[in-house]
Design goal:
Length: 160
């Protein structure tokens, strides 16, 4: 099958398939016209590669599974190496999640503080006018003002 057919059968883009081939995870032969031609088992292999990538593994990690990519990678018992790789990848993902959670919490706290300070400084009639403008803008103006206040670059600073 040609690359477009393999892409359609697996849900992978042609670009991804060329990348997998460059990484040595799949192979093709060239037809007389120069087109890539993949064997029938390529769809199974690509499906397994995509499942492993979706589980959080990298292409380099997937190389470990080369001997079993043509069958059901989930059918047999995992090897010690596969378990080691999965545990390492899980630790990396947990570290990233923790770091992103800390950033989110800091940003939420900064926005909460900026919003409270801005609300106290506005006169009630100005706050109502701002709310109407914000509602008309679909909420975009308020978020931009909050973000500017967090960075210390608020467009409007009340005097006093």
């Amino acid at each position: 099958m040609q690359i477009g057919e393999l892409a359609l059968a697996t849900g992978a883009s042609a670009r991804a398939l060329r990348h997998y081939e460059q990484a040595g995870l799949i192979s093709s032969e060239r037809a007389h016209n120069g087109y890539r031609v993949y064997g029938e088992r390529a769809a199974v292999r690509v499906g397994n590669i995509r499942r492993l990538l979706a589980a959080g593994l990298t292409l380099e990690d997937v190389r470990t599974f080369l001997p079993c990519l043509d069958g059901d990678v989930t059918a047999g018992p995992p090897s010690a190496e596969a378990l080691r790789i999965a545990r390492e990848r899980l630790a990396v993902l947990e570290g990233r999640i923790a770091a992103q959670s800390e950033v989110r919490d800091r940003l939420a706290a900064a926005l909460e503080g900026a919003g409270a300070g801005l609300a106290r400084s506005l006169a009630p009639e100005q706050a109502g006018a701002d709310a109407a403008v914000d509602a008309a803008a679909g909420g975009r103006r308020g978020r931009a003002a909050d973000a500017a206040a967090v960075t210390g670059a608020a467009a409007v600073r009340p005097s006093g």
